[in-house]
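Hello, quick one for you while I still have it in my head. I'm working through a protein record and want to make sense of it properly. Would you mind checking whether the tokens look sensible for this chain? I owe you a coffee for this, so here goes:
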Amino acid sequence: MVIALDGSGDIVYEALGSYIDDLCGSVFLGTARGKVVLYKMGTYPLTPTGEPLPFLNVFYSHGMLEITGIWNRDGKSGAFLLKMVPSGIEVRDEGIIYITFHPSDGGIVLVTLYGNEGLAKTLEGAVLDCRTERREDEKMLSSMLGIRSIIPPQWETSHP
């Protein structure tokens, strides 16, 4: 279901709460500069465009990756949270790491991280360890779109 929030404040607090929970109960894999984009009937940035965020945090928990980012740019606070089974990973020589996710309601989420060889190897191992089954508790949240999850029929009517 699509849930529009009154402002980014609720999303920021939810992402921050999830980050704190992950610090206590998940395996921290690393932090890198990065950005996230959703490809679904168009291209939709889930993190600010332009310069990558300085901190996207990656955790492993219960066969899923969880990626969080919180920012304040131009006086506007925002947050991103993704908790899903990854579909794949590609590492480029320049230390660029691409992780793809296929949400159960469709589309492709591409997470681009600017890391190093050590982080790349850690993330490759984690992606291989993640289960291939879809999980009911998958979550996608972004203050850029004010959404928690996207279902195609609602997406078409709520975002012209």
Q: What stands out?
A: The domain at 28-145 is CATH 2.30.29 (PH-domain like). Residues 98 and 112 are 5 Å apart (CA to CA).
